[in-house]
């Protein structure tokens, strides 16, 4: 395998889908939120992405079965009050090399644009490194109009205190260059554990903005389950990615060459 | 040399060969086991693989002769009670760069599939970091059926406590995506020395599963010999690869970009 | 995105333009100087460069809007006493990978040569690591004739005490191989803060050499403004690049593969 | 610049030239020896190699003139008692990335093979890390015959105590795969300074083996001169390469990915 590939499992047509990205990151916040939507609304997997820029390894699940590193695309049709279509991207890893991240994010945008997606939500966590009383939601966006929209939903702008490293940032930046619009939502979390509270705060904003209807009751339960299902290897993976999403000011030179 | 290449030394045909991989790793367990099969059953080398992702160096043997970094393919015909064909992969290194590992493993799978291989055994060691009284064998597999099969042979599933980094994991993961089935067998070893006992435990399971017949008497002797033959450079190489096969939980960011 | 691209925003023709490069570096000296010229003389942006060798991230501005990593080309027509044309290159990052730096600098030279540029100024800072009483200007050049020219303008040759790492060095070196001539000007700075004094010293030499006329009065003000506008992420970025421009003698192995 | 290139400066024909490589390494031993041959026998530069895998920088010479990173090919015609032709490769750097080293060495071999070269000498230093009373010469070779030849010239085989990292090793290993024969000669040196004595010991063996006639009187003088001419940047470069040529047993993971 010399290049990133996307295997399409089901040929579908979608109508101007909203694209939601939640690859692994700080405190599993985005992933937990997206997995919850996928399960509760029974989203359907229709494509898988594999890349030589993923870690050269496999995970082993609780049964002892090997699981390749991959990203997975799900779709939802006529969902929520607005009856919109959605593409949701989750996975067990992100690209790790400099050029790999750009290649993968470019392919993801090509792929979802092919289905008519013009709007992006990227989901993640913002690590505080200390206990969080009530998780707030931070954000950034591709336009002033969307910034105002975020503020109306109680999101705090992450203005002037940091960049966004990894797929959540790149997808917005590269999307913006193609005329796509998008927002980044981060649930505040101490980090370093599966944080259902941060995911709940994040989901509340996302559901309000998209008018998706998802029962949040089982979120805590899912967090517990996720905790059990996630092998140590995945936690290792997780920590690795968290380090790539360091808060600014911390030293991180890992993506240099 | 810009790309990985395979030089075929002998044109052969094989009938649905079983593919056994044992590139350098923890405690030389897999390599020792595979070298023993190759020598005892007089397997024949028929191809060599060279890659720009191998370390940019050569080894020097005991006579002072330079030896390029490479992987080597051997075959066996009508071997064991089942009279099966085999392809066995050994070598003095693994690919070291992120993308290199994927490129090399993809080429290896293309190559053995070309001979009709659909079943894979990957061999390695599981480092305990402390003395091992009686070496157990750990494993993982590409399907529930194979997991059950492994358990029947006394193999302990490595469930939920770790991923598999390097060629042994990638070949299974990438093979699974092509519909190939496979298992990973790890001999328990303290690590950091040539461990004949771990290789013996591993071989006992492998021979039982494949019905290959190999005399294990000279294994201890071979371990001693290997110890002498292996230059410090190879040990350096070995340590490097061991670090790439770290147990989960230990910090290893070396394959990041 | 697999390769560096240049998006041309405006089709222009220029007459033998002088090419000035001031990508981020030590103490923001070069960038501050070039931004000042661009603003005071109302240079016009006509092209943007994006690269998969830039950090895989976006910046967030003070409003909360994401800003992709990029380099930007501006032009000036009939500027200064000599009525010369200019191309000025600024940006929020440099390429970070080994091969990326070469690819990007090669593309930049191809691009400006296409407009007829044959002469290069690269601007940067020279970090002293301690307070600077009166900022001096250091330099290097592609020919003895230019070295003499620099000396006549009071520039101190950086002879025999160091190399030039990053775009400022590579553009001169690769340009020289194409028969382009160029000089490197470095304003002396303690480093690690936005240094208006170093930028002023640098600009005084540059304006003298090019006969450009730029009011330097607002430079201090601009430095203050820049300080405020630069997010922590950009500072992080900045520090990263500064480390790539280490003074010789300091240990820096970061660009090793 | 996306790929390694060789610029031919003079079209020449050579008759079965012997290829001598002496890129920067431990204690400048090989480089000093090769530079001495080039100057004393007035070898002529006929080609230059540039690579995106070289460090992204330029050096600055004592006059303040920038010097690109490059390797340089010289030739000698009808030299020594045997009236043989020679190609000598020197330079101010080696490739630094994993894949870059393989690409560059492959191109070098293609290039010299095009002139009919079938025999290689690679020159370097062997760092002892402590004072050396009388510099010995260590070696390795591509065949048993050459090993015997080396022993007859008093060279000590480096058997079983180490690999050869970098161009000197790769050129022999990759050359051997093409049926070229070669030897590696290392002058024993404390390392970390320009070592004329190690270069003299090395040259004595090389001259004996090739029957080249070179006056060694000015070697000490040249070492002094080299010391002065080499900028701190080059020393930095030198140290970097030395670390890539570490003695086995020392930890060096820098060429991983």
UniProtKB/TrEMBL annotation, chains A, B, C, D:
Entry coiled-coil feature ranges: 202-239
Pfam families, sorted: PAC2 (PF09754)
Matching InterPro entries: MJ1210-like, Proteasome_assmbl_chaperone_2, PSMG2_sf
Domain of life: Archaea
Keywords, sorted A to Z: Coiled coil
Gene3D superfamilies: PAC-like subunit
PANTHER family in the record: 3-ISOPROPYLMALATE DEHYDRATASE (PTHR35610:SF7), 3-ISOPROPYLMALATE DEHYDRATASE-RELATED (PTHR35610)
Name of this protein: Proteasome assembly chaperone family protein
Originating species: Methanothermobacter defluvii
